[in-house]
Write a structure and sequence with these properties.
By secondary structure, the chain is α+β, with helices and mostly antiparallel strands. The chain has eleven helices and 39 strands. Strands 1-33-34-35-36 form a five-stranded mixed beta sheet, with no helix packed on it.
Length: 674
C-alpha cells in the first residue's frame, strides 16, 4: 500500500501491513513532547464506547463511532466533511457481547470500507460518503456481528465477525474491492460432519473435536479483530477466537484441541487456502481468544535472523512464532498465570496445572476472561526493540453451569458466572481487589522479559502508539492521555481527556506539522459488565476525537456537575425473591448493566433509576419500551414473576448504595470477550 513511502499518512489499521503501530515521524519527540497541546476536538453525538483507529490520507481523517457510523474530518482542523450512518437496527444490540463499538475503516482506491454491527460490509466514496456498494457477510437469522476493522490485501477486502457466545460458526471472508463480490471464505471450525467439510483443513480440524454436537450451537471461533499481512511471504494472518460455548466439557465432551479455536492461522490471500496454524490455547475452555493484536517483525534470536509474528493473547503468555512456518520459538507469561505452569519448548503446548480442570470443582484462575491483554493494540518500536503492551491482572472463578441450556441469540458460556462474585466479607473483597492491577508494559520479545512498566489505577486501558521520536502514547481508563520515553518509560506529558480511553492513538503530518489523534470514549465489555471493577476508573463516557500538536492551546469545555441521584423506592419482595432476582440478573442482565447492578459509566446505572423508570420497569424488560436504544423486550426469557424478582434485586442494590453499606448481593461477576 506504500505506507512507508508516505510516512505522514496513517493508511491502514496498524499503519502498515506489519501492524507495528510505529511511526517514523519525529517532529514530536522526547525532547519537546511537553509542549504538546490540544489542536482540536470533536464531540460525537453518542455516549457509547469508542474503539476506532483513525486513518489519515491527504489531510483527511476517516474514523468510526458507535453503531458503525463513519466520519470524515479535515485532519488539521477537525472540520467535519461528511458522515455516514448505516442505520443499524437498534435491536441488534442484543446480539453484541461487548458494546455497540467499531474499530475503524479500511481505505483503498478512493473508497472507504466499513463493517456494520448487523453484518454488512459497505463501500463508501471517500470524497463524499455516498454508498458505492453494500453486501451482507453474515446470515441475518444468526446472531453474528461485526465490530472489527476490515483490511484490504491485493484488491480484496478481508472481514471477519463476532458472536461466538451467542451461537455462531466463525469464518473470515474476502470481497472484491470494486464490486463487493465474495471471492472466498475460510471457516475456522468444522460444521456438521454429516454435511461433509469445505476443505482438507476443516476435515483435519474435525478430528480434534471429540464428542458433543458443537455444530448445533455453532462452535465459535469468530475472527472478530486482529489480522496482519506479509507481502514477501504472501501470507495473511488471522486471529481466531473462543469456542461456543466457552465450556469445552459441554462443547466437545471428549476433549481434543478443537481446531482452530484460539489460534493464529496463516492463509493465502488470493484464495483463502490454509497454510499453517499455531494454537495458543488447545481445547480452550476459558474464553482465551487469540484475536488479540498480532505484530510482524524481523528479530535476531539466538544469533539467527528470524521473521516472526508476535502476540500476547488473553491467556497471559507472550508468543514469538516463526511467521513463515508457524514454528513455535518462545513464550513467557507477561502477567500472573496459574492455569498453565509454562509452555513446553519442545511442543509449544501449555503445561496444564490442576487449576485448568473445573469440570468437578470451581477453580480460582488467572487470567480472567477479560484477559491478561485484550483487543487494545500493542505497538513495536524497531529502534528500542520493545513491544509496548497494555497488560492487566484480574482474577476469576471458573465452574460448570449445571443448569446450562443453549438459548439461541443470548449468552451461552456453559460457565456459572455467579461463582466469580466477590465474597460478602468486606475484608475478602478488599483482598481480591488488591489483586487487580493494570500497566503499560515494555516487553523485550527476544529476552522474553519486561524492561519497564507504567502502573495504572484501573484496568481496561487504551491501545498504544510508538514513534521514531522515542515516544510511546497511550490513553488510560481513568481519563488521561500519556506520553512516555520509549527507551526507559519516563512519563513526559499528560492530558486530562475527561473520559476513559480504550482506543489506540495515531500520528500523522499535514503541511509539515505533526499531529497525534486518539478517539476517546469509555466503553467495551469491561465498561459494561465490570460493575465495581469498571467503576474503579471513576469516569463517565464522553465520546470525542482529540487531536494534539506542538504549541497548540485548545481547551475542552468545562464538565457539567453530575446529576443528583433520587432516593430509591422501598425494598420489595422477601429475601428469597431478591436471591432469585440476583440469579436471573447475573445470568442475563449483568453483561450490559454491570455486576451487582453497578453501572460502569456507559449505560445508565440501574441503582439510580428515576421513579418513572421504576414505574416502566416491566414495560422496558418485557415489552421493549426502549427498543430504539437497543433495549429489546425479553418476554421470551422472563415471565412477569421473573421480572418482579429482578426488579426487587435492583431496588435492593439501590437501597444498599443509598444506605452506604454493602449488601449480601454485592457481588462482582466477571464476564468478557471483545
Amino acid at each position: 500500500m506504500g505506507a512507508d513511502e508516505t510516512p505522514g499518512d496513517w493508511l491502514t489499521h496498524g499503519r502498515t501491513y506489519s501492524e507495528q503501530r510505529y511511526s517514523p515521524l519525529a517532529r514530536i519527540n522526547a525532547d519537546n513532547v511537553g509542549r504538546l497541546g490540544l489542536a482540536w476536538h470533536y464531540d460525537l453525538d453518542t455516549r457509547r464506547g469508542m474503539e476506532a483507529t483513525p486513518l489519515v490520507v491527504d489531510g483527511v481523517m476517516f474514523t468510526t463511532g458507535s453503531w458503525s457510523r463513519v466520519y470524515a474530518h479535515e485532519a488539521a482542523t477537525g472540520r467535519l466533511l461528511w458522515s455516514y450512518d448505516p442505520e443499524v437496527p437498534p435491536e441488534w444490540a442484543v446480539h453484541l457481547c461487548c458494546d455497540v463499538v467499531n474499530r475503524g475503516v479500511a481505505l483503498w482506491g478512493g473508497r472507504v470500507f466499513v463493517g456494520t454491527l448487523d453484518g454488512r460490509l459497505i463501500a463508501l466514496d471517500a470524497a463524499d460518503g455516498s454508498v458505492l456498494w453494500s453486501v451482507r457477510t453474515t446470515d441475518p437469522e444468526r446472531p453474528y456481528s461485526i465490530t472489527g476493522a476490515p483490511r484490504v490485501v491485493k484488491g480484496r477486502v478481508i472481514i471477519g465477525n463476532g458472536g461466538a457466545e451467542f451461537g455462531v460458526r466463525g469464518y473470515v471472508s474476502a470481497f472484491d474491492v470494486d464490486t463487493g463480490k465474495q471471492l472466498w471464505r475460510f471457516y475456522t471450525v468444522p460444521g456438521n460432519p454429516d454435511d461433509g467439510f469445505e476443505n482438507e483443513a476443516m476435515a483435519r480440524a474435525a478430528e480434534t473435536w471429540k464428542g458433543g454436537e458443537w455444530w448445533k450451537i455453532g462452535g465459535g471461533g469468530t475472527v472478530w479483530d486482529s489480522m496482519a499481512y506479509d507481502p514477501e511471504l504472501d501470507l495473511l494472518y488471522i486471529g481466531v477466537g473462543n469456542g461456543s460455548p466457552w465450556n469445552q466439557y459441554i462443547r466437545s465432551s471428549g476433549g481434543g484441541d478443537n481446531l482452530y479455536l484460539s489460534s493464529i492461522v496463516a492463509l493465502r490471500p488470493d484464495t483463502g487456502e490454509y497454510v499453517w496454524h499455531y494454537q495458543t490455547t488447545p481445547g480452550d475452555r476459558w474464553d482465551y481468544t487469540a484475536t488479540q493484536h498480532m505484530i510482524l517483525a524481523d528479530l535476531t534470536i539466538g544469533g539467527v535472523p528470524r521473521k516472526v509474528i508476535m502476540q500476547a493473547p488473553k491467556n497471559g503468555f507472550f508468543y514469538v512464532i516463526d511467521r513463515a512456518t508457524g514454528e513455535f520459538l518462545s513464550a513467557e507469561p507477561f502477567v500472573p498465570v496459574n492455569w498453565a505452569s509454562g509452555i513446553d519448548p519442545a511442543t509449544g503446548r501449555p503445561i496444564l496445572t490442576e487449576t485448568a480442570d473445573y469440570s468437578e470443582t470451581p477453580q480460582f484462575t488467572m487470567p480472567s476472561p477479560y484477559g491478561g491483554h485484550n483487543w487494545h493494540p500493542m505497538a513495536f518500536n524497531p529502534n528500542t526493540g520493545l513491544v509496548y503492551l497494555p497488560a492487566q491482572e484480574i482474577p476469576f472463578v471458573y465452574g460448570q453451569d449445571g443448569q446450562f441450556e443453549y438459548t439461541a441469540g443470548f449468552w451461552n458460556t456453559g460457565v456459572d458466572l455467579s461463582l466469580a462474585s466477590l465474597p460478602d466479607d468486606p475484608d475478602q473483597q478488599r483482598q481480591l481487589f488488591s489483586m487487580v492491577r493494570a500497566r503499560l508494559s515494555a516487553w523485550d520479545p527476544v529476552a522474553q522479559s519486561e524492561v519497564w512498566r507504567a502502573e495504572y489505577p484501573a484496568p481496561w486501558n487504551g491501545g498504544v502508539l510508538t514513534s521514531a521520536g522515542n515516544l510511546v502514547f497511550q490513553g488510560a481508563a481513568h481519563g488521561f492521555v500519556f506520553a512516555y520515553r520509549a527507551d526507559d518509560g519516563e512519563r513526559l506529558w499528560s492530558f486530562p481527556a475527561q473520559t476513559g480511553i480504550v482506543a489506540p492513538p495515531v500520528t500523522f503530518e499535514v503541511d509539515g506539522r505533526q499531529y497525534v489523534t486518539v478517539v476517546a470514549g469509555w466503553g467495551g465489555v469491561l465498561a459494561l459488565s465490570g460493575g465495581a471493577l469498571a467503576k474503579a476508573a471513576q469516569v463517565e463516557n464522553r465520546s470525542r476525537i482529540l487531536t494534539f500538536a506542538l504549541d497548540a492551546g485548545g481547551e475542552l469545555p468545562a464538565l457539567a456537575p453530575p446529576p443528583e441521584t433520587s432516593r430509591p423506592p422501598s425494598r420489595i419482595g422477601d429475601e428469597e425473591t431478591i436471591a432469585l432476582g440476583k440469579r436471573y440478573y447475573h445470568a442475563r442482565c449483568a453483561a450490559c448493566h454491570g455486576d451487582a447492578a453497578i453501572g460502569g459509566g456507559v449505560l445508565p446505572d440501574l441503582r439510580h433509576l428515576t421513579p418513572e423508570a421504576h414505574r416502566d420497569f416491566y414495560a422496558t424488560v418485557l415489552g421493549g419500551l426502549h427498543r430504539d436504544r437497543g433495549m429489546v423486550g425479553f418476554s421470551s426469557l422472563f415471565s412477569a414473576t421473573d421480572v418482579e424478582a429482578i426488579h426487587a434485586y435492583v431496588i435492593d442494590r439501590a437501597n444498599a448504595e443509598w444506605a452506604g453499606m454493602p449488601a449480601s448481593a454485592d457481588d462482582q461477576t466477571s464476564t468478557g470477550n471483545e
